[in-house]
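A sample follows:
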Amino acid sequence: MLFNAIFMIVPVVLLILTVVLATKSFQKKGNAKRSLLLQLASFGAVASFCLVCPVIANAAGGSAAAASLDPIAKGLQYLGAGLSTGIACIGGGIAVGHGAPAAIGAAAEDPKNFGKAIIFVALGEGIALYGMLISILILNG
């Protein structure tokens, strides 16, 4: 019971600690790039901790490890669904972030271009919807 609580508390504490350290680092030195790299490195460390620890805990069970492969597969299924949605939403956000100001500028110059411009913004949002659709297929498959 205590072992499971540690596995749930440690990643949260590490992520909170890295946010505090990155914020203090940015306030002292004003280097946003260094703070971002610190955040990405700490996220990678926490993600590897969360992926490795359940595998080690199942391997320590001996013969029960072979019978408990289903929870690992289920966890990887959730990880895949989360990654497909998250990465697609990041891509959609970048697309909308670049397309929406261009659409506003085109509509400001000529109001007839509004219909054409809004289509490009909607195509950027469609990327996020495709990612969500893939995650639904992963979870129900």
Remarks:
- Residues 36 and 136 are 31 Å apart (CA to CA).
